[in-house]
Specification:
Number of domains: 1
Distance between the termini: 45 Å
Strand order of the largest sheet: 1-2
Largest sheet: 2 strands, antiparallel
Structural class: mainly alpha
Low-confidence stretches: none
Amino acid sequence: MIAAVVLAGLVLTAGLSGRFGMGGAVALAAMSLLWLVVNGPMEGPILAIVAPGHGLTGGDLAGIAGLALAAHRFAALRRSRMAR
């Protein structure tokens, strides 16, 4: 149940983070990290083995995509502030 609520929050944060500037990017990164911690019940099959006993699963991709989007938004905000 917790994983489902966090996933819904991650999707909502990803959709709204662009409206809130740096705070939105930070919130998206935080939700993505939280998802990576609680996604155990929804992980799915292992897609790639990272180390013995550790792998990348389908559930991990949502957190990784959220972190990538947060980094992209952070970089775009930083570029726009430097251009001023």
